[in-house]
Lipoprotein (Lentzea aerocolonigenes), 142 residues
Amino acid sequence: MSRIALLALVLAGCGQAAPPAAPPSSTSTSTTTTTTTTTSTPPTASPAAAAQGVDYASCTDGTCEVFVNGEVTIPLAPEFGFTTFVVTRTPDLTKVFGGDPVNGNLRAEIGGKGHLNSNGITMEVVISTESGAVLRFSPRKD
């Protein structure tokens, strides 16, 4: 056999060269954590916290939400059994005096939140802080 034929057989038996190896794959995982912190502050008694602010005359119809601090007079229609509630607010106590010549007098004290029902009216202390109180008046439902 000639050298050329031998060389051709050697070359043919070697096969094809292997393809170049692929670069190693790189997998990157990214994790993002988001933390949301919500703080809740308790409501503060202020004129802005009450629907009618300090418009006490709005209570005449028995439906209002007002801010009180110190002493205020809340007018009420006679149909509620009282013509006025005099409310005195101290840092930790809401004192109420209801006067009516026909139905007599009412005296009550509410520490913190609470409510009173008398004759045709309900008064609720919805917010009570050292700065005052927010009172909600509504016709009494039995």
Q: What stands out?
A: The longest helix spans residues 3-13.
